[in-house]
Amino acid sequence: FTFVSKCPQGSFSSTGNNLFSCTLCPVGTYQNLVGQTTCFGCPLSTPTTLSLGATSVLQCRTPSGKFRNEF
């Protein structure tokens, strides 16, 4: 039995399974699932995030700071 830790929400790795090689999602992306190999890009209408490691599309915003639901 081998314990494999998955990357948490807001991060990714090439395998998705090695907790020690997880990288935070870059600004402008998010990942709402665990154990992933990529991050999702924010929508064109809200193309950025405030920081690395966003865990929801709701953290995407416009460059002027408006969230998706503030239009």
Provide an overview of this structure.
By secondary structure, the chain is largely without helices or strands. It contains no helices and four strands. The radius of gyration is 13 Å and the shape is elongated. It has a two-stranded antiparallel sheet with strand order 1-2. The protein starts with 10 loop residues before the first strand and ends in a 30-residue tail after the last strand.
Fold topology:
Elements: E1 11-12, E2 23-24, E3 29-30, E4 40-41
Distance between the termini: 50 Å
Number of helices: 0
Largest sheet: 2 strands, antiparallel
Q: Percent helix among the residues?
A: under 10%
- Class from secondary-structure proportions: little secondary structure
Determine the mean pLDDT: 87
The counted number of beta strands is 4
Q: In sequence order, what are the helices and strands, one letter per element?
A: EEEE
| Main sheet strand line-up | 1-2
Shape: elongated
Strand content: 5-15%
**Radius of gyration, taken over Cα atoms and rounded to an integer in Å:** 13 Å
Low-confidence stretches: none
